[in-house]
Amino acid sequence: MDFNLTEEHLMIQQAARDFAQNELLPGVIERDEKQQFPTEQIKKMGELGFLGMMVDPKYGGSGLDTISYALAMEEISKVDASASVVMSVNNSLVCWGLQTFGTEEQKQKYLTKLATGEIIGAFCLSEPEAGSDATSQRTTAIDKGDHYLLNGTKNWITNGSTASVYLVIAQTDVDKKHKGINALIVEKGMPGFEIGPKEQKLGIRGSDTHSLMFTDVKVPKENRIGEDGFGFTFAMKTLAGGRIGIASQALGIASGAYELALKYSKERKAFGKEISQHQAIAFKLADMATEIEAARFLVLKSAWDKDQHKNYDLSGAMAKLYASQVAMDTTIEAVQIHGGNGYVKEYHVERLMRDAKITQIYEGTSEIQKIVISRSILTQ
Ligand code: CAA
Ligand code: FAD
């Protein structure tokens, strides 16, 4: 067993770390406060190859492995989880889904632009009545011969207004239940496609989250991904990899908060010594460091499973479940270690604490991860 990262992995990690420090850190507090999308920063991420990391270079991607992607996600998320969710959706849900299951025409038309960040994508599964219960799709895509007629509402869509391409899951044949669901590529601007107002959020406030409304949107048949009825399997397979991305995001939020708390604890003095010299604080740091290390092993193991073409449904769900809990616990303690300073924006840890919570909710809540994990271990 080799726990060493390769030279290439270390280079990518360093490049992401430099980008986060130089390009994301300045302005991150303001973007959070104003709910401002990191437009310029996302453009640069595209130029540096962070938006199509695992895409084949022949489609404009960086051709890297999942471990590289997880390392970059961690570094970006240490500083700006709003930027990293854009990166995560584009890489692991949109680009991966298209590269793995799209036709050559779909790849040429959409993937090449998505992988370079020329445009960004969105993944649209959730609905007002279908969140965790994802098979209960109410959005319909009725087969009209050469096109589908799309009607319905999607909720909580990341990149909702900034995306140009949307992978939309919809029910074609109700009688066939989840086997009658399709995944369609919908373009912004198609007649009948409307974008709802931006959600006002607790965390990841720089990312844009919207409802989407479809009224008689004509989607050409060639925009269907996979065979008729493949849509739910497409969503599940894509989300299995997406969860590795969100686990990496949670790990980054936790390690970012830990690094800030460690530094602060060595600078701040109380009762004549640095607060890190008080055992109550030192033990908090010990717990944080241990839990982050454990989360990192789970994240990298799930990324490695994917790279080795092993099944990663279980390891990805475990990584997301655990890393998101560590993100929550660590950020709360990081605020505590900062005392009053932890409660104000300029010290960053309050934002990381608000950002941490979403990692327990999206791409399958923690309860859903436990369903995935328990079903997997009980059928082994
Ligand atoms: N790969 C392939 N197929 C899978 C699969 C996987 N990982 N997981 C399930 N399936 C298949 C099953 O085999 C089954 O098909 P068959 O009947 O042909 O065998 C079908 O999907 C239905 O599966 P279940 O019977 O297990 O369905 P269920 O109703 O019990 O639900 C669930 C399963 C795991 C709870 C699923 O509904 C789920 O994952 N829910 C959470 C939804 C979610 O994660 N949403 C995230 C939205 S995207 C997002 O959030 C992005 C973002 O924030 C940035
Ligand atoms: P519900 O499913 O109503 O769950 C409510 C509670 O009940 C949760 O605690 C849940 O764990 C629990 N629960 C539900 N069923 C069970 C069960 N069987 N057993 C035990 N507990 C259960 N979706 C997209 O498709 N694309 C996106 O880009 C996207 N981005 C998002 C961005 C943000 C900021 C947010 C908040 C959400 C986003 N989502 C996106 C939606 C997200 O995936 C859902 O919110 C999530 O899957 C939970 O669904 P729900 O909100 O309907 O909660």
Quick description:
The chain has 380 residues and is of the alpha+beta class. 52% of the residues lie in helices and 15% in strands.
Describe this structure in words.
Helices cover 52% and strands 15% of the residues. A four-stranded antiparallel β-sheet has the order 2-3-7-6, covered by helices on one side. The two termini are 24 Å apart. The chain has 380 residues and is an alpha+beta fold. The protein folds into three domains: 7-120, Butyryl-Coa Dehydrogenase, subunit A, domain 1, CATH 1.10.540; 122-228, Butyryl-CoA Dehydrogenase, subunit A, domain 2 (Beta Barrel); 232-379, Up-down Bundle (Butyryl-CoA Dehydrogenase, subunit A, domain 3). The protein binds acetoacetyl-coenzyme A and flavin-adenine dinucleotide (FAD). Flavin-adenine dinucleotide binds at residues 89, 122-126, 131-133, 156-158, 201, 204, 209, 358, 361-365, 367-368.
